Amino acid sequence: MGKTKVLVKINPEGKYVVEIARHINIALCTPNTRVALYNDSYKLHKILPSKVDPLVSLMKVEKVPDSTYEMVGGLDQQVKEVKEVIELPVKHPEIFESLGISQPKGVLLYGPPGTGKTLLARAVAHHTDCTFIRVSGSELVQKYIGEGSRMVRELFVMAREHAPSIIFMDEIDSIGSQRIEGEHGDSEVQRTMMELLNQLDGFESTQNIKV
């Protein structure tokens, strides 16, 4: 719309072409950005932060764990693979660009309780200088339809804003059930899992986000 006007959507009125105040950087006015308008002239005068559910914002780990790879015993092969899949793309993305190959999206750690899955994830967060987001799969199982999918979308929005970032999803089996036909109580859980897969393999780039 040029350097002085943008198209905004105002609920429930509709879409308007409005002017931008002089102190606003037009480069920050990207699609889906929340903005504030003057009530009388509808001039854009402030860019608001992204709307994130408080439950999602609490998933961000402020203090990086002090666990190291040396604390993980008997998993030398798994530690090596996690370094190649998670740590290497975050620290040296130019290696993948020079080879012309896409970066891995993430890694699945499975096994009985007490085998070092969570400890290995904490060690990865310690050795990689990036944002660590921890979420339990049971937190994404919500009572109302669409709530779990919305939380997954906002989770990846927050991860993109703080990229590079690592999302550690514990108890993923609570939403990673087998697909079934018909309308059941598990259909909402399947929607949540489909939204997670869509965020990983969708149109928006998740190159700086590892799961």
Automatic annotation (TrEMBL):
GO terms for molecular function: ATP binding; ATP hydrolysis activity. Gene3D superfamilies: Nucleic acid-binding proteins (2.40.50.140), P-loop containing nucleotide triphosphate hydrolases (3.40.50.300). GO terms for cellular component: proteasome complex. InterPro entries: 26S_Proteasome_ATPase, AAA+_ATPase, ATPase_AAA_core, NA-bd_OB-fold, P-loop_NTPase, Prot_ATP_ID_OB_2nd. Keywords: ATP-binding, Cytoplasm, Nucleotide-binding, Proteasome. The keyword RNA-binding does not apply. Pfam families: AAA (PF00004), Prot_ATP_ID_OB_C (PF16450). Residues 103-200 form the AAA+ ATPase domain. The keyword ATP-binding applies. Belongs to the AAA ATPase family. This is AAA+ ATPase domain-containing protein. It comes from Piliocolobus tephrosceles (Ugandan red Colobus). The lineage of its organism: Eukaryota, Metazoa, Chordata, Craniata, Vertebrata.
